[in-house]
Structures are given as structure tokens and as C-alpha cells.
Amino acid sequence: MIPVIPDLAERPTHVPVGQVFDFDVYRFPVVDGEFQSALLQLRRQEVPEVFWTPRNGGHWVVTRARDVQMVLETPDIFSSRKSSVPKALAPNPPLPPIQSDPPEHAQYRQLLTDTFSPRSVRRLEEAARALTIKLIDGFEPNGACEFIGEFATHLPIEIFMSIVDLPPSDRLGLLEISEACMRPRKPEDRVNGFATLSRYAREKIRERREKPGNDLISTVIAAEVNGQSLSDDTITNIITLVLTAGLDTVASMLGFVVHFLAHNDEHRRQLVAKPALIPRAAEEMLRRFAIATLAREVSEEVTLGQARLLPGDMVVVPTMLGNLDEEIFDEPLTVDFQRQIKSHYTFGAGPHRCIGSNLARAELKIFLEEWLSRIPDFAVCPNAMIEVNKRVVATMSALPLCWTPRNEQNKIDTAKAAYGR
Predict the structure, then answer these.
(1) Cβ(18)–Cβ(50) under 8 Å?
(2) How many CB atoms lie under 10 A from the CB of residue 417?
């Protein structure tokens, strides 16, 4: 049955009127792709640092880094059983490990750890670099591309599909399903999306049982927890989660990074002139352009800021607000490639910190190295309308880019030299 989510939930009796602010974390104005800074407007209004909104089933929202950290690092109070709002649309059955709490969470997370370890990621880097070069060289002579469709939904997703050994021909279909799960237009899209992805995962599990391989699906099938083999239902739920995360997050993050570089010549030229700066620059842009809006369910009564939360309440945690807190970072909206970053919340925090962070960093670094060596100067195409889909993971629907192809630039440079200009 598809749950009915009211437009406005009734205010619970334990929520004072003064702590209510009508705000939809999935629907607010964004100008020219500036999603993160648009959300930051919450802290520039007369809004409590922790407030309750009647949208998306009714939930609390935290806006400061200290509360982001408290929620994400205290799983005994803030449970991951429901990790998005409205909680009525949370995947059911739950998808471990993301919807598991300690100690069960660690048992399931361990099954995935080796695949995304630094050592394993290093083995993927050669393939990621080769694919990056192939994709860029394919459209660089055209002087233009639609970055999301022609690059962002290829590089990280094809690398991920090699990890789970899925055929490239399934990529577009899986992307459509993932979009329904992560950014549904209506409740039934999300419910049906997860059901479809679960059926796909179950079919692949059946295939791997008949013909095991060295891929992640085969690894999970062969694994044990507490000395017991996993049931097909549990394996299906784990693989469904892996597919959901692997098909979406890095592709979405790349769009915001490229959008920034297209609009900021000075930053881009720093990296072209000093490629050694790229790892630090990548970390700074990861901080500045966080995309995940997480959520937790309260397990026991707790005070957060000035708010009193009761069991069953939902708390939304916009990771980008943690990263843009001036109590943690000086001039947080400024992208500073010399900034010393000890930690940030782009990959979450606590026991549920993103297990794929090593791979995401490697893919971003490789992308910057290879793209900027081939297309050092580029811009967003004139009159392009940049739309941001703001759900659990924010993403740009499309990002048209333009540049002067290298062969055309060579002709221009030759002509200038010939005429002494």
C-alpha cells in the first residue's frame, strides 16, 4: 500500500509554536545551481537553530555543525532505522547497513569494507583514469557537452558496475530506477523504485549463486555473520542498498564541482598551473559542495539545542549546513584551496560515515587531473537553465558546457603568431 503523506503534518503537543518554521527541505528556491548557499539562508532568518517543520510528515531540522555532529555520532539516541523523510517512505524491509544500528550495523558494514578500502580503490584507479580519458577525448573536439549525461553518469557508475560485475547495457535502466528511489516525483515512484531494484538484485543473486565470481555480490553471498550464512532476503536488501548508493552520489557531486569551476576562472587556473594542488582542492570542494540531506529517528527523549525531542520524532541533518558553519570554518562559503581541513560532513559522520568515500575522492582527483589537462578553459553554455533536484541527494538535472577545442585553439594561436599578435 502506498502511504498518503499530508502536505502539512499536525504539530505535536511537545513542540512549542515558537520552534515551528514551515520549510520544505526538498523544495526551496535555488538560483543558478547554488544549492548549498541557498539552504544557508535558513541561518540568516529568524529561525531557531533546531526547528520543527510540518512538511514531509513533520520533522525537526538542525542547522549548526555541533548538532549535525551530535545526531550523526550518537546512534543510541538517533537511530538510522528511518534515514530519510517522510519516514513512511523509508525502504521496507530496511536496507542494511545504512538502516541498521550498532552493533548489528558493524557486522553488515564489515562485509563491504574491503571492497572500498584504500588498497582496493588503488586497484580501480587505472581503469577509472582510462575511462576518464576516453570519455573526455570523445567529446573534447566538439567544443561542448552535456556534462551530467555525457560524463557524470558514466565515470563513477561504470566503475561501480565493474565492482558488482553488472553489464554496461544495464546502466541506463538502473539509473532510471535509482532516480525514482532517490528523487521521486510522487510517493509511489519511491516505493515502486525500491521494489524494482530489489527484484533486479534478487535476480543477480540467483545468477551469482549459479556462477560465483570475484565481484561484491559474490562476496556478500559467501559471507557469514555470527557464523551464519545470510538469507537471500538479507543479501537482497544489502545489494539493493549498494546499488542505490553506487549509482547516484558521486555522479551528483561531480556536477556541483564542475559548475563551480566553470564559473570561477581563477580557481580553475590555479589547478591548471599547479596540478599538485588538486588533492587539497578536491577536499575543499567536497566540503563546500556537500549534497546529502540525512535523517534519523529519535529513540529516546533528548534535548537538542533548545528543542525537546521525543521517541519517534524525525530529525533531518543537512550535511552542507555542517560544512558551512562559521563556527567551524572561516568564511565557509569561500572556496580556498589552501584551507586546512581536519574533517567535514560531506560523507556523514559516526558509524554510518560513507563507506565509499575513498573511491569518491579518487574519482574526483582523477577527473580533475585529466579534464583540466585537456579542457583547461570552459564555461556553462550561454542561456543554460541550471535546475537542482533537491531530495536525499541533490543533483543537477543537466549541465551544458562549452569550450574552444584544442585543434581550433591551435589554429588561433598559429594565426596570432603569423601576424605578430
Answers:
(1) no
(2) 9
**C-alpha cell belonging to residue 171:** 546502466
Return the closest-CA partner of residue 107 out of 225, 277, 26, 235.
225
Max intra-chain CA distance, the chain: 79
How confident is the prediction along the chain (421 residues), in pLDDT tens digits per residue? 678 888 999 999 999 999 999 999 999 999 999 999 999 999 888 899 999 999 999 999 999 999 999 999 999 999 999 999 999 998 888 999 999 999 999 999 999 999 999 999 999 999 999 999 999 999 999 999 999 999 999 999 999 999 999 999 999 999 999 999 999 988 899 999 999 999 999 999 999 999 999 999 999 999 999 899 999 999 999 999 999 888 888 999 999 999 999 999 999 999 999 999 999 999 999 999 999 999 999 999 999 999 999 999 999 999 999 999 999 999 999 999 999 998 999 999 999 999 999 999 999 999 999 999 999 999 999 999 999 999 899 999 999 999 999 887 775 565 455 555 5
> CA–CA separation, 49 vs 307, rounded Å?
9
- List Cβ neighbours of 118 (8 Å cut-off, separation of 6 or more): 358
Give the N- to C-terminal CA distance of the chain in Å, as an integer: 71
Would you say the C-alpha torsion 382, 383, 384, 390 has a positive or negative sign? positive
Measured CA to CA, the distance from residue 268 to residue 263 in angstroms comes to 9
Whether the pTM exceeds 0.90: the reply is yes
Name the phi and psi angles at 62, rounded to 5. -100, 145
Eight-state DSSP code of residue 389: E
**b/e burial code for range 263-295 (CB count within 10 A of at least 16 → b):** eeeebbebbeeeeebbeebbbbbbbbbbbbbbb
Q: Could you give the C-alpha distances from 343 to 67, 335, 360, 405, in angstroms and in order? A: 15, 15, 16, 38
Which burial class, exposed, middle or buried, applies to 338 when counting CB atoms under 10 A from its CB (0-12, 13-18, 19+)?
exposed
367-381 burial string, b = 16+ CB within 10 Å, else e? bbbbbbeebeebebe
